Amino acid sequence: MGEQPGDQEDRAGTPFVGPAGRVLEEALAAAGVERAHVYLTNAVKHFKWEPRGKRRLHAKPRLSEIQACEPWLELELSRLRPRVVVCLGATAARAVLGRPVTVAGHRGRVLSTNLVPAVFVTAHPSAILRASDAASRARGRAQLVADLRQAAARAL
Q1: Would you kindly state where each structural domain of the chain is located, as residue ranges?
Q2: Cα–Cα distance between 146 and 152 in angstroms, integer?
Q3: What 3-state class would DSSP assign to 121?
Q4: Longest C-alpha distance within the chain, in Å?
Q5: How many angstroms separate the CA atoms of 47 and 29, rounded?
Q6: 52 - beta bridge partners?
Q7: CA distance 117 to 31
Q8: Is 144 helix (H, G, I), strand (E, B) or coil?
Q9: Parallel, antiparallel, or unpaired for β 84-88 and 118-122?
Q10: Which one of 57, 91, 103, 112 has the largest count of C-beta atoms within 10 Å of its C-beta?
Q11: Closest Cα partner for 15 from 1, 30, 31?
């Protein structure tokens, strides 16, 4: 579960079709997770953005925007009944868990809610893309793959 659509996702009407989606696809493959077995969605259903010239840049959603999308998120989870949800980023984790969390403080731990028996928190693929250097990006990718492997093992 991502945080919110990005520019390309907003235009396409499909989550994870932009650069972060490519990072996620590569990480899923490296973790041995078949894309066909994964349901991708976002916690916040609209793209909040700020204009920068001709570009639309991501802006962090407010708590009220996260809460406004709760009914859709709860409906998705109640219908899908996933065994595991991987929250990509702190905004997605807050939406699923109903409280503020940090990726660093919760990565690697199995959490739960009344709708999902196992919740994992990891970095959003866009954070990997924004890393300052190649070594940081490689470290971020390796952590994402490890987190996805852990979640996949729990789903079995």
Answers
A1: 7-155
A2: 10
A3: strand
A4: 47
A5: 27
A6: 55
A7: 21
A8: helix
A9: parallel
A10: 91
A11: 1
Q: Could you say which architecture CATH assigns to the domain 7-155?
A: 3-Layer(aba) Sandwich (3.40)
> pLDDT for 27-83, tens place per residue?
999 999 999 999 999 999 988 878 888 887 777 899 999 999 999 999 999 999 999
Spatial distance between the Cα atoms of 146 and 140, rounded to a whole number of angstroms = 10
Residue tagged 């409280």 (tokens):
99
Position 128, amino acid: I
Burial of 86 (0-12, 13-18, 19+ CB in 10 A): buried
DSSP, collapsed to helix, strand or coil, labels residue 89 as: coil
Give, as one character, the DSSP assignment of residue 42. Answer: B
Distance CA 11, CA 22 (A): 16
CA separation for the pair 82, 38 (Å, rounded): 10
Q: Give how far Cα 94 sits from Cα of 9, 23, 63, 68, 153, Å.
A: 21, 22, 9, 13, 23
Average pLDDT over residues 101-116: 94
Return the number of other C-beta atoms located less than 10 Å from residue 146's C-beta: 16
Judge whether 113 and 96 are in contact, CB under 8 Å.
Answer: yes
